[in-house]
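Notes from hallway chat w/ T.B., transcribed later so I don't forget. T.B. wanted the structure written out for a chain they're using in a teaching module, and asked if we could keep both sequence and structure tokens in one place. Agreed to drop them here.
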Amino acid sequence: MRIRLITPASPSARNGNRFTALRWALILKRLGHRVTAVQHYEGGDCDLMIALHARRSFDSIRRFHDEHPDLPLIVALTGTDRYRDIRTNARARESLELATRLVVLQAKAMADLPQPLHAKTRVIYQSAAPVNGRPPAAKDGFQVCVVGHLRPEKDPLRTPMAARDLPSWSRVRVLHIGRALTDDMQKRAHAEATRNPRYCWVGELPHWKTRRILAASHLLSVTSRMEGSSNVLSEAIVSSVPAVVSKIPGLIGTLGENYPGYFPVGDTQALTRLLLRAETDVKFYRALKSHCASLRGLVDPAREKTAWKKLLDELR
């Protein structure tokens, strides 16, 4: 099939939505389809369209539906779609109705959709290929990696704030990879790095380098207030790096209800306790690693490829 893949992320963006679109394009090509990835649908022949983001891709969704009402239209929902926009934005809600199929990235997302939409919704977990790395020796520190652009939805400075209250003997160091999306966030990150010797903000890095740093870390910290799923969590799982994460549906849907590494959203003290426990309690750290290791099949690239094949076969 000739597939048009729409993602509002610019070609130069290094964010989760862009990486998702690139991975999907590769999967679809390996399934034998011809894929064109663009930011906007501007007309032209194709057999099917996949649009990432119900609200931001609405104009493309509406135009494709108007011009090709009989062709399949897949809308993939992001975290801001599910946990904000479909509740407050009429365009996002209309995208759900126009879609032939909806894609969500973890099972918990189904609960946030109206019941009539469940029949046309499919869950496709985000996959990642493993990248090997060896954490530094304990004497050199306990590296906690934060990966994500600095924007309010990610609560990006929660981890260094938590690290401030660790005891003086703790060897925790927080390495943060990601670009500040506003001047205010940039000022806050610089101020945090100046006052907090445990925090190093390195800015945006190439994806391959980010993955190597993550794979060589002891722990991933994900502090999001809102998350559809998490590419970096999948990447950590396949690289045998355990995580401490905010307890939100978008992460519970991958890690499960009983994961021992949750903390309440925005609770700095609870995160401080988790960081210290992961550093000092060998049994607890092994439990985090064991749980994450049990999920590797969930984020296996072969599983994601099979899920896309099954979905496209439904629409032929």
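Follow-up for T.B.: The longest helix spans residues 16-30. Might be a good example for the class.
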